[in-house]
Amino acid sequence: MRFDVLTIFPSVFPGPLGVGVVGRALASGAVHLHVHDLREHSGNRHRQVDDMQFGGGAGMVLKPEPIAHAIRALRAEIPGVRTILLSPQGRVFTQDVARELVGEPALLLVCGRYQGVDERAREEIGDELSVGDYVLSGGEVAAMTVIEATARLVPGVVGSPESLVEETFSSTTAGGLEPPLYTRPAAFEGREVPAVLRSGDHAAIAAWRRQQSDEQTRRRRPDLVRLRAIPGGNE
Ligand SMILES: C[S@@+](CC[C@H](N)C(=O)[O-])C[C@H]1O[C@@H](n2cnc3c(N)ncnc32)[C@H](O)[C@@H]1O
Questions:
Q1: Do the beta carbons of residue 31 and residue 157 sit within 8 Å?
Q2: Which atom number of ligand 1 is nearest to the Cα of residue 129?
Q3: Which of 40, 49, 87, 179 measures 20 to 30 Å from 170, CA to CA?
Q4: Distance between CA 112 and CA 89 in Å, rounded?
Q5: 58 CB under 6 A from ligand 1?
Q6: Which intervals hold domain tRNA methyltransferase TRMD/TRM10-type (predicted)?
Q7: Containing H/E element for 200?
Q8: Phi/psi class of residue 41: alpha, beta or left (left: φ > 0; alpha: ψ in -120 to 50)?
Q9: Is the shortest distance between the CB of 131 and ligand 1 below 6 Å?
Q10: What is the pLDDT of residue 161?
Q11: 3-state secondary structure of 219
């Protein structure tokens, strides 16, 4: 799968995407990352891509021409690419959205900055994703989040595919939270690993994990329990 990012700060990539499973996928070519400097499309010798707001107001706005020129050029170069603006006003990015995006051959993620992006550039991009209900100062960290969560779903990127179906928001947890995890030592400062996990009884372990997953989800994320009750509610 191919990811392209359009940003005024190309040097921050790959950042954390360069390590761990996604870093290995980038190194092996299972996933491709291309980062493009928006200023290369400024069309002026000062490489300026922002301007003041019409109507007044604090903060500069990213101009429409550099974004439109850049995404038209990239759309012509990358067949079937889906273009998405990172924006606090977009659809909230969830695990279900990551599963939807991994079906795409290529994603072009556009990072806003300053006060945001000219409305005509937003229209040209068409699609928007938010990483949550808070405001970041730029789309780069949000783009990394989308890439990290999506790239690890590309077949072969995570070494043991079972771990993708046995984690939080997966089918085994019915879209809820993962049960507690333990490793050695069996006793740590007086706190013991639950005996069932050391019993070797696979059916009992599976039943304990299901029950713990349900309990953790009810206690920590009751909103997910409500979603699970609605057919297709986690989508
Ligand atoms: C300071 S923010 C602009 C916020 C905008 N003035 C507003 O009130 O909606 C600058 C850029 O950061 C990115 N950004 C901020 N919060 C985000 C979020 N929750 N999800 C995705 N991108 C975000 C967007 O690309 C945005 O254009």
A1: yes
A2: 21
A3: 87
A4: 12
A5: no
A6: 1-225
A7: none
A8: alpha
A9: yes
A10: 86
A11: helix
Q: Which two tokens stand for residue 67?
A: 């974004």
Pull the structure tokens for residue 157.
């990127």
Between the CA of 210 and the centroid of ligand 1 the distance, in Å, is 38
Distance (Å) of CA 49 to CA 35, 113, 114, 202 = 17, 10, 11, 59
User: Hey, which residues does 188 pair with through a beta bridge?
Assistant: 191
Flag whether 176 is marked binding.
no
The runs of H, that is alpha helices, within 29-131 are 64-77, 95-101, 119-125
- Please, what are the averages of pLDDT over each run of 10 residues along the chain (235 residues)? 98 98 98 98 97 97 98 97 98 98 98 98 98 98 98 95 91 94 98 98 97 97 81 56
Q: Is 137 in the pocket of ligand 1 (CB under 6 A)?
A: yes
Q: How far apart are the first and last CA of the chain?
A: 22
**Residue 133 and residue 128: Cα distance in Å, rounded?**
14
102 vs 98: CA distance, rounded Å: 6
21 three-class SS: helix
pTM of the model: 0.95
Token pair belonging to 7: 């940003």
- Distance (Å, whole) CA 79 – CA 75: 7
Q: Which domains does the chain have, with CATH numbers?
A: 2-151 (3.40.1280.10), 162-229 (1.10.1270.20)
141 known ligand binder: no
